[in-house]
Amino acid sequence: MSTATSVARGSRAILSGVLRSNSGRIGFVLLCLAVVIALFGGFVAPYDPYATLGVPGAPPGNGHALGLDFIGRDVLSRVLFGGRSTLLLAGLATVVTYTLGGAIGLIAGFSRSKLDSLLMRSVDVLLSVPALLVILLLITAFGSTPVVLVCAAALVLLPGVARIVRSATLEVSTRGYVEAATARGEPTRSLLLREILPNISGIVTADLGLRFSWAIILIASVNFLGIGIQPPTADWGVMVSENRVVIASNAMAVVGPSVVLAVLVIAVNLVGDAYVRQLDRSGGSQ
Amino acid sequence: MATSATTAGPAPESPPQSAKASGRGRQHPVAWFVLKRVGQGLLTLFIVSILIFMCTSVIPGDAVTVILGKSGTPETIAALQAQLGLDRPLYVQYLSWLLGLFRGDLGDSVVALAQKQPDPSIAGTLKNPLTNSLILGSITALLLVPLTLFLGAVAGIKADKFIDHAISLPSLVLAGLPEFVTGALLIYVFFTQLHVLPPVSLVAPGESPLATPKILVLPVLTLLIVAVGSGVRQVRLGMIDVLQTDFVQFARLNGIAERRVLARYGMRNAVANSVQTIAQNLQYLVGGIIVVEAVFAYPGIGVYLVQAVLARDTNKILAASIILAVLYTVINIVADLLVVFLVPRLRTELV
Fold this sequence. Notes:
The complex is a heterodimer of chains A (286) and B (351). By secondary structure, chain A is mainly α. Chain A folds into 3 domains: 10-36, no CATH class; 45-82 and 234-262, no CATH class; 85-221, MetI-like fold. Chain A contains 12 helices and no strands. Residues 1-22 of chain B have low confidence and may be disordered. In chain B, 75% of the residues lie in helices and 0% in strands. The chains are: A mainly alpha (286), B mainly alpha (351). At the A-B interface, α6, α7, α10, α11 and α12 of A face α1, α3, α9, α10 and α13 of B.
């Protein structure tokens, strides 16, 4: 069986497990909706998101379904354009976190030496200050480029991943098949990648949803604070912040981006929650 | 964002404390534990302070250049750098900053120096924001703890009944939202629609936010919605666990009234199990306050920090960051100690 088909079969099984519960189904539909809006909304936007079209803060009407923003740009078009940055940066941050945190956790859990406590202690330093503070400091040091945003969010989420991977590795590496492979003289690389990694993937991905939603929240919050993605870029976090001045005349300029962001995060959490429950049902990770 | 509650998982090996039991430790395990925990906290803070210092020093020359802007000539830039002591080696800068910290001297604001303001000292500018933040944080904490315990316990006792779902589902949904989204939607409801609460929480300089309690309602509510939601899940799970233990089952079999079983055996142990969760929620407040203050333009330490980052005022960033880091660590230590005092059986494991 090729890897491609087994991956396809695996993801189909996960999907049907997620869709078994009501909250999973609702979450999945909302997630598809939010992701499609975020990634492809720009193609159906009625106006140029950067063009000034009328009176700042004009309420909905006159062909502008969500009215105009604080300098007279079409809110709907900006909402349709504004999810891409956050979603992509958060997705990248999650990938980086799992790669880096996974590597650290695997090495720490497998080495069972001084290296273990050294790695885990250094990772734990990141937990001794508020997450947002870590990001603020990294932005202070390295500027607010997209690369820094991704790395900063990934770094904040890393300790959790490293811890889970480490304890799962510790547990799995005492099992018979790993010991047998060790006795066969398999190189460490293939022990880690072929014996241990496939067997901890269930536990490790259990809170993938939670971490992805944190990544979204962190990136969006930094953008909201004005120290991430900079105006005039259409971004949900930036929009909520800049349009607060017109909330009295056109509340939709604030509510619109807030609601799509809320839907995205809630959907990720619901799907993640349903995935954890289907893991529990199918007897954990093995 | 209480990370470790959900991610840590039980460590498979024995508790780390038991490994290095010294003679002194055996005689006074609790005192030894307190000493060790405080020592650990101080060491962490020391490392964190170095890292924070490094983050704000990566751009030392740049910060001065940026702040002076076009008016900066090589001479004025060099003069300001000398005034800030940036011409010294990095470790000397760090040590002199650390020594100043112990004397309550947090250094000078880079921006204020550049603008030649009469009093560039930072320490004085921090007093009001810090007080405002502590007021906001304490009010939230006072409401947060009983609410989390109550809702979590009720959901746990009535697990899988209607009332459990009525508590658990909203907390799952609401706890996951970014603070600024919750805040913005609350402003929409209570200001735009109902006209009952102000959209911003401005405090006149020198005035206490307690003089106009109305402005505190929405910030507190925003923090509560996020923090209570994440805590309820943990307390609920703790309660369910406790109710399945042998001693609760036996108490029930003995015919003790259910109400008494819950109060004497259930609640007591669930509270002890929840201390860590609650500590994480309080720790969350230290970070959450940064965004919530920004949403409502509430003049606290969070807004102070964000403004310092925007202005690239490195010394202000340093000062505000270290204060938040200390708060965070103190809550952590207090929680660890509190658990040991509340759950006597843990004390024997300390030895």
